[in-house]
Amino acid sequence: MDLTAAPPSRKTEQALNQGPQPSRLVRIAARIRFVGVFGAILWGVVGVSRGLAQQSLGLPPAEIDCAYRVQLLRDRVVALTQRSPLSGATDPQDDVVSNLIRETRTVCAERRDAESTHALDAIDRRLREHLQSRSRDQQARRELLAP
Fold it and tell me: Residue range 17-28: average pLDDT?
């Protein structure tokens, strides 16, 4: 057996080919799908990182987006009100959200963003009402379970 034989001919290469090559349109469509999936993933990562950054305490006032933070805080307060009453006893999220509301209200008031300030006042009022209600419920449970 001669290992230094000439390379296979063009007909031999085609015969060894495992199937027809995809058409040009199929390759273009695959590339478009790849770019679309990559774009969607990138959009999601950027959105999540932006949302996490807006929820951090101590963010410089120039980086705070009042309208976006109002939406985030509204969603967090809704999530807090839907928690189990027993899970809230040791969870520091109530204080974190209250601090975020205060910090955001201060920045939005300095920017004279009346709409965001009004929305934050309403969100803060709902959170305080919920915390007071939860506190009353916990007190009632303690009284009922007392020996």
Answer: 74
Is residue 86 within 8 Å of residue 41, measured between CB atoms?
no
Distances (CA, A) of 120 to 58, 82, 97, 101: 18, 19, 11, 7
Residues 35 and 71 in one domain: no
- Residue 117 is part of which domain span? 60-147
Q: Is the model's pTM score more than 0.70?
A: no
- Taking a C-beta distance cutoff of 8 angstroms, is the pair 109, 124 a contact? no
Residue 36 sits in the same domain as residue 100:
no
Task: Give the gyration radius of the chain's Cα atoms.
Answer: 30
Q: Output the CA torsion sign for 108, 67, 81, 90.
A: negative
pLDDT per residue as tens digits for the range 31-79: 999 999 999 999 999 888 887 777 777 778 888 888 888 999 999 899 8
